[in-house]
UniProtKB/TrEMBL annotation, chain A:
Source taxon at top rank: Bacteria
Domain Thiolase C-terminal span(s) in chain numbering: 255-384
Protein name in UniProt: Acetyl-CoA acetyltransferase
Organism: Iamia majanohamensis
Domain Thiolase N-terminal residue range list: 10-223
Organism placement in taxonomy: Bacteria, Bacillati, Actinomycetota, Acidimicrobiia, Acidimicrobiales
GO molecular function, a single term: acyltransferase activity, transferring groups other than amino-acyl groups
Stored PANTHER family: ACETYL-COA C-ACETYLTRANSFERASE, ACETYL-COA C-ACYLTRANSFERASE
TrEMBL record, chain B:
InterPro entries reported for this sequence: ACP_syn_III_C (IPR013747), ChsH2_C (IPR002878), NA-bd_OB-fold (IPR012340), Thiolase-like (IPR016039)
Keywords, sorted A to Z: Transferase
Annotated coiled-coil segments of the chain: none
Protein name (Swiss-Prot/TrEMBL): OB-fold domain-containing protein
Organism lineage string: Bacteria, Bacillati, Actinomycetota, Acidimicrobiia, Acidimicrobiales
Superkingdom in the source lineage: Bacteria
Molecular function GO terms recorded: acyltransferase activity
UniProt signal peptide: none
Keyword Transferase: yes
């Protein structure tokens, strides 16, 4: 038994991403058509060329029919996948594994979500009949519990840690301000973020990812075929997924300063990709900054910072756009908002742009020019103690 | 010998200062305080807390019946006592029934229990209604009281035996309320007083005659009635010395309707000496008088939560908040989807957890699973678990937050991760506290509450509340223990 991965057996040869926004004027079908068209055009193919499709959505539609109808795919295998907020990554994983298996030559992964039609702010899961004993806390509150636990464990002054969290948000706003597809394109100072009224624990509204509609898509083929579609493919180095058993919610040994599912997915992905020093080897990381404490803990769980040191690394600017390892150069969930099914593929879209040097000059990371060829995307769903975690790694060069 | 074996009461955490009423309501109020049920409490949850207090020292009591009395039941058609039965984890062969609707029903339930049968738990609980500024609002109170009645045994001896009982029944109009109405209506005061006082005197005389006692023999006389004027007048006209008439708790608790007679009895028995003769006179749709003699065992098991201590405890609630909790002040709901109604079948499957707070313990590792699970959290065999009751466990807050976005009948939600002494962890909502009181290291205990109501279904489950010192201060674990 083991996780062998599909290193360098599959390549991404086309990607598309809609602007993430309050698309009150666009429907689910519009978003899927736009993202898919950009991805297919980039790969120089038509819908009829694709052999199989996966569409990821958490709750905007049911079954493969939602995509087959939107794009009028006739006689095609289309599957809907869902894995909470890691749904977009799950679609990519399914399409990649299908191609790697040899079952299909060309597969397309589409992620989409229409959240603004609910009439509510924030994300709301559809109700499942239960015994009524499940907690009804918001995700913001669940993630806010990380800050006091982290401050307690590492002896960090809570006010100082609160400013570190705000600095993470400020960094991602600054990056998003340079991204025409981001929803929020305004820089925010640490002071302004700290001054917002609390919504959950110490977190203000600007410590929380926005909510947006959007879609993103990727075309996947066998690695040896990649150059038929593009001069600069991205080779899939690792796709790792861990679904937590929820033990953190019931196990007193869990301390809310780490997300074990993410550490496990990261370790598995690094093993698949042959990475031993992620902070030194990766050109960039797109991570699931649903709330500012999440990104803080992620830096340690993904091995970018030593335990207890992510907060000082964040303060030092290690993960800034011009830092040692740029994290969320596109602005992250913070600036894009979070159309659940699309976010994982939106992250991959930034890796696509950055590694191919297609990102706008004002946010093109210097690490790529310095010769780094690998990017990481991290996508999670759920809460501290009970989450699914995805880590993907792509690179511009096939292994020697 | 049949009599009272165990007892307990529950007063909600919050207190309304009656002086705050007039400024908002334009009138009413008065002096003193009244108890206020939390937004997450109703007659059912109050009854559970009183029942737990009574039964906790006697885990083997195994009542054969539960009689639940209230003037403010959560449900009609459906029995309310069954939820109390489930939360108290009474045997499934025990009968549970409501004596609901009228203030008299609690005394009648007690009389029925004293009349015979197996060990019977009599519980009364009320959340008294009243429109803003009304005498009922100011004078009302929210409380619960529980008495375990049965034949004494060596393990559980009789603490107070019934030595005489008397009753008078008369049909006349004093107080009435249409079901669902937020107010009770009352006929002119003097009429009720003139009817009640002689009835009370006659009932007490009958009880004393049955006991072979004179009024002068009584050490304590408790007078309970929804008719405040009649109760005061009766106290003076029952033929007993003024100093024998017990405090009706009106200035601190208020009048908790059907609960009042039982609450006064519990409070009196908690302070009684062996041999004391205590008369309870209840004036409601007639009159009932019960005379008890405290046995040598009256103080055998001191209450962990005496009424006097609970009266002295508590924290204030602002009058507008009280009105909001009662649904008398409509406020904008959070712009979030309201909770969905619980599933009847799912709730039935998990009744031991949902109502009884019974977790499961992995026999191999000893790990506690909350909610109970079939598979152990870190591997091992499936279905190798045993039940682990957690309702009486205490724990410590590991980390906490305040959720200002989530839907709640009274936002914000205070929420914590709690590790229980002896194992087990839950993410859980906190209640009976101010947000600023909660943080890492706070000690908590569990309490049965109504989370919300959807589609008319009261969704009951457990919350945690801070453990408090006698002066109300939140207890915190020593730093080493909290880690």
């Amino acid at each position: 038994m083991g996780s062998h991965g599909i290193r360098d057996r599959v390549a991404i040869v086309g990607m598309g991403c809609t602007p993430f926004a309050e698309h009150f004027d666009k429907g689910l079908d519009d978003l899927m058509v736009e993202a898919t068209t950009e991805a297919l055009d980039g790969a120089g193919i038509t819908r009829a060329d694709a052999d199989a499709w996966w569409v990821g959505t958490a709750q905007s539609g049911m079954s493969g029919i939602m995509l087959a109808k939107a794009l009028q795919l006739e006689g095609a295998p289309v599957t809907r996948v869902e894995n909470m907020c890691a749904t977009g990554s799950e679609a990519l994983r399914a399409a990649s594994y299908a191609v790697a298996s040899g079952a299909y030559d060309l597969a397309v992964a589409v992620g989409v979500e229409k959240v603004k039609d609910s009439g509510y702010q924030g994300l709301n899961a559809f109700p499942i009949p239960t015994d009524g004993t499940n907690r009804t806390l918001t995700a913001a509150a669940m993630f806010s519990m990380v800050l006091p636990a982290y401050a307690e464990r590492y002896g960090v002054d809570p006010d100082q840690l609160r400013r570190v969290a705000a600095r993470i948000a400020s960094k991602n706003h600054a990056n998003g301000a340079k991204n025409p597809k981001a929803q929020f394109r305004r820089e925010m100072s640490v002071d302004a973020i700290c001054d917002m009224p609390a919504v959950a624990g110490q977190l203000g509204v600007f410590d929380c990812a926005g909510v947006a509609d959007g879609a993103a898509a990727a075309v996947v083929c066998r690695a040896e075929d990649a150059h038929r579609y593009t001069d600069s493919p991205l080779f899939v180095k690792a796709l790792s997924l861990v679904a937590g058993n929820g033990s953190g919610l019931i196990d007193p040994s869990y301390d809310y300063t780490t997300f074990p599912e993410i550490e496990a997915a990261g370790a598995d992905a690094y093993a698949q990709a042959g990475i031993t020093d992620p902070r030194g080897e990766l050109a960039l990381a797109e991570v699931h900054d649903c709330f500012t404490p999440t990104e803080l803990v992620l830096m340690e769980d993904l091995g970018f910072s030593a335990r207890g040191e992510a907060w000082t690394d964040c303060e030092k600017g290690t993960f800034d756009l011009d830092g040692e390892l740029p994290v969320n150069p596109d602005g992250g969930l913070k600036s894009f908002g979070h159309p659940v099914g699309a976010s994982g593929l939106r992250m991959m879209y930034e890796a696509w742009l950055q590694l191919r040097r297609e990102a706008p000059a004002e946010r093109q990371v210097a690490t790529v020019d310095a010769g780094r060829t690998l990017a990481l995307t991290h996508n999670l769903g759920g809460y501290p103690g009970e989450m699914v975690s995805f880590v993907g790694i792509v690179g511009t060069e096939p292994s020697a | 010998m049949r009599g009272i074996l165990a007892l307990g009461a529950h007063l909600p955490h919050r207190r309304l200062d009656r002086r705050d009423i007039a400024a908002v309501a334009g009138g009413g109020g008065g002096r003193g305080t009244r108890t206020v049920a939390g937004y997450d409490e109703d007659a059912t949850t109050l009854a559970v807390e009183a029942g737990r207090t009574a039964l906790r020292p006697h885990p083997d009591a195994a009542p054969a019946a539960l009689w639940f009395s209230t003037t403010t039941p959560t449900y009609a058609d459906k029995t309310n006592a069954t939820a109390v039965h489930a939360a108290l984890r009474l045997p499934d062969h025990a009968v549970a029934a409501d004596f609901a609707g009228a203030a008299r029903s609690s005394v009648v339930a007690l009389r029925a229990a004293l009349a015979g049968g197996g060990p019977t738990l009599v519980v009364a609980a009320d959340v008294r209604p009243g429109l803003p500024g009304s005498p009922d609002e100011a004078a009302g109170g929210d409380a619960a009281a529980a008495l375990l009645v049965g034949e004494g045994t060596d393990a559980l001896p009789v603490r107070a035996e019934l030595v005489g009982a008397g009753a008078r029944t008369e049909e006349f109009l004093d107080r009435w309320r249409t079901p669902g109405d937020a107010r009770t209506r009352q006929w002119e005061d003097r009429f009720g007083e003139q009817r009640y006082v002689p009835l009370g005197r006659a009932a007490l005389d009958a009880a004393l005659a049955e006991a072979g006692l004179e009024a002068g023999d009584l050490d304590r006389v408790l007078v309970a009635s929804p008719h405040a004027r009649a109760a005061r007048s009766a106290g003076r006209k029952l033929g007993v010395a003024p100093e024998v008439v017990g405090d009706d708790l009106g200035s601190t608790v208020g009048n908790p309707g059907a609960t009042q007679p039982l609450l006064l009895l519990v409070a009196a028995l908690e302070e009684a000496a062996p041999g004391d003769l205590i008369a309870l006179v209840s004036l409601a749709d007639g009159a009932d008088a019960l005379v008890f003699r405290a046995t040598d065992e009256v103080a055998a098991t001191p209450s962990a939560r005496p009424v006097a201590d609970q009266v002295a405890a508590g924290a204030p609630v602002e009058y507008p908040t009280y009105l909001r909790w009662r649904g008398l002040l409509a406020t904008e709901p959070p712009r979030r989807p309201e909770p969905a109604r619980p599933s009847a079948s799912a709730a039935a499957r998990s009744a031991e957890w949902k109502f009884g707070y019974v977790a499961s313990e992995d026999r191999t590792s000893g790990a506690v699973h909350m909610p109970p699970a079939r598979a152990a959290m870190h591997g091992g065999p499936i279905d190798d678990m045993e039940p682990r009751p957690m309702a009486d466990a205490t724990g410590t807050v590991v980390t906490s937050t305040i959720d200002r976005l989530a839907y709640s009948p009274s936002p914000p939600i205070v929420f914590a991760i709690v590790d229980f002494d002896g194992g087990g962890r839950v993410p859980v909502e906190l209640t009976d506290c101010d947000a600023a009181e909660v943080g890492i290291g706070v000690r908590v205990e569990m309490t049965f509450r109504r989370l919300f109501t959807a589609d008319g279904i009261a969704n009951y489950f457990w919350k945690a509340r801070p453990v408090r010192d006698a002066d109300g201060t939140v207890v915190r674990a020593a730093a080493a223990e909290a880690g």
